[in-house]
Every structure is written in C-alpha cells, then in structure tokens.
Design goal:
The protein has 22 helices and 18 strands. It is of the alpha/beta class. It has a domain of 176 residues: Ribosomal Protein S5, domain 2.
Length: 512
C-alpha cells in the first residue's frame, strides 16, 4: 500500500515541503531513498523501538520510502515522526484518511517521546502558504510555530497522541497565540542601564548617535576605561523592535534552534559577543549544510567584537561585504542561500599591545612603531565601514566616587526613538531603508544637502585628514543623525563639525 505524508526541509531561512512516499509490499527490506543524511538513515532504529514501546511494530515486509524531491539533500532527525506515521498508515496498522492535510515533524525518543526540532517558524509559514490544514510537531516548538495565523498548530509530547488523532479521531488541543499580545508582553528593558556608568559623557553621546542612526562604532582606549561596560548597555537605548523585525529575527534563531520554548516571538534585540578565536565560517555562516553565523544571529541587534585586533584578519575581512550589503550569501555547488545581516557593529580595542596610549606615565608603554604595527592588524577598508571612531579615556576618581546616578537608558531611548521616527517618515516610500546608516549614495545626495559654509568645512577636513569617498559618505550620514537628534531639518556646520570629530583613526597624531 502506498501512502504520502508531508514534512519540510529548511534551506537558509525558507522552508521547502518534502513529500514522504511510503510503500509497503511483499518481501523483506528497508529502503530509504531521496538523498537522506546519516541522521535520517539511522531513524529506522529509533522508529522500531518507539513503535514497539507503544504497542505497534515495524512490519516485516519490504518497505520503500522516497523523500521527494529526490535530488534535494535532506538532513537531521526531525523526519522520524513523519516516517513512522507513513509506515503505520501504509501497513494498515492505523487508519489515517486526512494525513495528507498536515505537515508532521518531530524527532522520536526510544519511548515514543518527542524531541524539539529546528526551523519550526519557517516550516509553519510554508505550510500556511501551501494550504495545509495543520502542523503537528513537538510541544516545545508549538508556541514558535503558533506565531503563524490561519494554521492549526498541534504541540504533542508522544507519538501515541498523533496516532490517536488520526486513527481514533481523538482531538488534539491546538496551540493558540495572540502574536501582538505576546510580543508586547515580552517587551522588556535589558538589565544593563546607562545610569550605572560614571562619567564618560562624550562616549554616551556617541552611543546615542550610533543608536539613533544605526551606525557602526569603534571605541579605542586602555583597559578598565569602560569600553565593554558601555557596549553591553547599547541595546538598552535602541528603539523597541517592530513586529516585522521580531518575526525576521525569530525566523533566523528558529533555523538554528535557539528560540526559547516558553516564548513564541523574540521581543528584545539580540546582542551577540563572539570570542576572538571565532572562525570566519562561524562568524558569517556556512558549513556543509549552511547555517547562519553570528552576523545573522545579531540581525536587527548588536554584534560586539571585543579586542578587535585579536581577531584573525581573515575573519574580519569576510565582514566587509555583509557590512555594506546588510546580507550574506553562501554559495554551494547545487544551491545558494542568503541570510539577512543588518546589524550594528560595536567594536573595542586597546591602542597598543601594552594596552595604553603613548603616555610616559602609563604602567606599560609602547613605542609609536609598536602601536602602529598593532593597529595595522585592522585593515583600512574595514575601518572605513565604521562610521564612528571614538577615544575612551579612564574615568577620574572624582567621578568614580560620585554617588549620583547618570542619565538613565529610558530617557536616552526616548530621544533615540524620536530620531528614528523622523527617519522612518523620511524613508517611508523606500522598502529597504529604515534608518540613516542604511542610506546609499542616492539617498545621501537627496537628504544630506549642505550649505556653502558646511561644504567648505567638510572639504578642509577631507584634504587635511586624507579621507576616502566612503569616509565622506559616513560623515554625511552621521551628520544627518546628529541633526535628527537636534530636530533640525537641515544639516549645519555644527553637525558636520561634531561628525568629523568622530573619525579619530583618520586623524594624524591621534596617538599622542
């Protein structure tokens, strides 16, 4: 008897429906075809034990299973339940008239229990697109899949529940989630607050500008000056995620199985801080079966690279294209996947191997040549893609011992959100641009017009600092953000002057 059951495979952040054809005939043998990987090939042992422990059996006949389309590589253990239900139905152990109306996924334990799967959200989106009535999956992933409306999502704990649903028509309880209500309920403020930071007012100002325009920022300063502390507090002043951003972000984290089972939708912006020993594949994504890397997992959030010169040069160089295009494309011989990677890059570094500026009073001094060699580990093209360069100096004792709290993240966030609202209205008709850092040359020319005095000021800075064309565009973008924070319609010389100050690494003699 031939039976068709439906599962799904995830490539990139999109799902593809897989038709599992099970044919049980006279003879002996178990044949699984359609480019399954080892995890799927081993499923027969899990299925046999799970069925036996729940009162069913793997029939002693010739079982042929085809996973179509047969030229598409399938991977993972999430097809266990799909195959098991197909075998039971094809061997007439159960009656399952409507099994073709559901997507069925789940990894089986030997007792018939179910383990969570990856990619539940993109699979649910595809199931709704293709008109399936429902999606049956492990209970741990139910909330994640229930984000998708107009699709019955059934979270189950054991294969027996699914068998009873089809064979005995025993009703399953659908998981119902009010996406908007769930999103706003989980919208929390991060635990780190700028009120805890003593002094560093100029750095806080830089952080505010970076958050308002989505600009990349690098902090240069000695150990203990507060670089990491400031970076960890940046998400607390970013505007709350929109529902669309939350869906995008959840989709990426769903693919790698990192969505917490107690919540459906990710409501807070991701903050990723990989160690400097990370490989280029782990950072940008890839592998035999391409998976999202750290830059995609920080989509709509912050990627913090602490001690930037300690990262391998090859790792940093592969970031250049994603920083510019805000997406990363991974190509293989038979397919190509694209992951979104629109993130804020926040980097920190010491000014020298010893950790201090060229200062005779510093505990460890380094010569200008040593400092230059250390800084040259970071390429000019990468620094060009970072909008704001700022020096961080140690906080004096008077400010450290001051009991007064600084300005809270909540009040800074209000100003940032107002500036982002101005940008949202400005770019209302452009789908791919939402804030100033995303502007391309066309938008820069349209929205960053300068008067004669500002042009002359920028011209002088360009000539004196020997800035590149990309650095010129970055200054204009940052100037536009400073103007938005001030509520100004036009960019003035004051805004340009402040933006030029935030190109520390372009200035001659900044070391000393």
């Amino acid at each position: 008897m031939l039976v068709k059951v439906f599962g799904s495979a995830v490539f990139g952040v999109e799902a593809t429906t897989i038709t599992v054809e099970v044919n049980v005939d006279s003879g002996i043998g178990y044949h699984l075809v359609g480019l399954p990987d080892n995890a799927i090939k081993e499923s027969s042992y899990r299925i046999q034990a799970a069925l036996k422990n729940n009162g069913y059996k793997l029939p002693g006949k010739k079982i042929t299973i085809n996973m179509a389309p047969a030229d598409l590589r399938k991977e993972g253990s999430a097809y266990d339940m799909t195959l098991a239900l197909g075998i039971l139905s094809a061997s007439s152990q159960i009656q399952a008239k409507h099994i073709d109306q559901y997507i069925i996924m789940g990894e089986l334990s030997l007792d018939g229990g179910l383990q969570p799967i990856k990619g539940a959200l993109p699979i649910a989106i595809k199931a709704r697109e293709e008109g399936f009535k429902g999606f049956i999956l492990p209970k741990q992933n139910a909330k994640e899949a229930a984000i998708v409306s107009n699709l019955d999502v059934y979270g189950v704990e054991n294969i027996t529940e699914v068998i009873d649903f089809f064979d005995k028509e025993k009703a399953l309880e659908p998981t119902i989630l009010n996406t908007r209500e769930e999103f706003y309920k989980n919208l929390e403020h991060p635990k780190f607050d700028f009120a805890d930071v003593k002094g560093q007012e100029s750095i806080k100002r830089c952080m505010e500008i970076a958050a308002a325009g989505g600009h990349n920022i690098i902090m240069i300063g000695p150990p203990g000056s507060g670089k990491t502390m400031l970076a960890k507090r940046l998400p607390s002043i970013l505007p709350p995620m929109t529902l669309h951003e939350a869906l995008e972000t959840t989709k990426i984290h769903s693919v790698v199985g990192r969505v917490k089972d107690h919540t459906g939708l990710m409501a807070n912006r991701p903050f990723r801080s990989p160690h400097h020993t990370i490989s280029d594949v782990a950072l940008v994504g890839g592998g035999a079966y391409p998976q999202p890397g750290e830059i995609s997992l920080s989509h709509n959030g912050v990627l913090f690279l602490d001690e930037l010169p300690e990262f391998k040069r090859s790792v940093l160089e592969v970031m250049r294209q994603p920083l510019e295009d805000r997406e990363v494309t991974i190509s293989r011989a038979k397919f190509t996947v694209t992951y979104p990677s629109s993130f804020m890059l926040v980097a920190s570094m010491n000014p020298s191997p010893g950790g201090y500026f060229n200062d005779p009073d510093a505990p460890v001094t380094s010569s200008p040549a040593e400092m230059q060699r250390y800084l040259s580990k970071i390429s000019g093209p990468l620094l060009d893609r970072i909008d704001i360069h700022i020096e961080v100096t140690p906080v004096p004792f008077e400010k450290l011992s001051d009991d007064r709290r600084g300005e809270s993240s909540a009040s800074i966030r209000e100003r940032v959100t107002k500036a982002r609202d101005i940008q949202s209205k400005r770019f209302e008709g452009i789908d791919y641009i939402h804030y100033n850092a995303q502007m391309d040359v066309k938008q820069i020319r349209a929205f960053c017009a300068l008067d004669d005095a500002s042009k002359q000021l920028l011209k002088t800075a360009m000539e004196k600092l020997n800035l590149s064309a990309r650095a010129y565009d970055r200054i204009l973008k940052v100037s536009r953000t400073i103007a938005d924070l001030a509520g100004a319609k036009a960019i003035t010389g004051e805004h340009i002057s402040e933006a030029i100050q935030y190109r520390s690494l372009d200035r001659d003699g900044w070391l000393g």
